[in-house]
């Protein structure tokens, strides 16, 4: 389960205190390497986020949590390596687009 598997949610959990559903993406790939450009890495991340947005939009999470009405849905992205400036800009754009749907993007590095 990781960024390169777009057909699977890496991890999912409930934050009862905040009535939030947390969906986690794990990104284990380095940003600067000879096998994957930053652009390709960002495209992989975009595809994974889009997969999660489809999961949310279709309300598939209600199969696991049928009796919980979540106030917010959070996509947590955990980067093994420090993200790039372009990645941070990309995530800000995504956050601005999904905020209106009650979805929040959080990212963590290291």
Give a description of the structure.
- Helices cover 31% and strands 25% of the residues.
- It is built from two helices and four strands.
- Strand 3, helix 2 and strand 4 (103-109) form a beta-alpha-beta unit.
- It is elongated.
- This is Branched-chain amino acid ABC transporter substrate-binding protein.
Helix content: 25-40%
Biggest beta sheet attributes: 4 strands, mixed
Q: Class by helix and strand content?
A: alpha/beta
* Oligomeric status: single chain
Overall domain count? 1
How many helical elements? Answer: 2
Strand content: 25-35%
CA gyration radius, whole angstroms: 14 Å
Topology pattern, helix = H, strand = E? EEHEHE
Please state the overall shape, judged from the principal axes of the Cα atoms: elongated
Give the overall pLDDT as a whole number. 95
Low-confidence stretches: none
Strands side by side in the biggest sheet:
1-2-3-4
Number of strands: 4
Distance between the termini: 18 Å
Protein name: Branched-chain amino acid ABC transporter substrate-binding protein
Pfam families: DUF6572
In short:
By secondary structure, the chain is α/β, with parallel strands linked by helices. The chain contains two helices and four strands; from the N terminus they run E-E-H-E-H-E.
């Amino acid at each position: 389960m990781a960024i390169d598997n777009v057909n699977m949610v890496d991890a999912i959990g409930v934050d009862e205190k905040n009535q939030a559903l947390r969906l986690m993406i794990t990104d284990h790939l380095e940003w600067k390497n000879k096998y994957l450009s930053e652009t390709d890495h960002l495209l992989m991340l975009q595809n994974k986020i889009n997969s999660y947005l489809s999961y949310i939009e279709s309300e598939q999470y209600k199969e696991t949590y049928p009796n919980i009405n979540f106030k917010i849905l959070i996509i947590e992205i955990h980067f093994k390596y420090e993200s790039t400036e372009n990645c941070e800009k990309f995530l800000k754009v995504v956050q601005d687009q999904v905020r209106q749907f009650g979805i929040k993007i959080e990212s963590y590095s290291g």
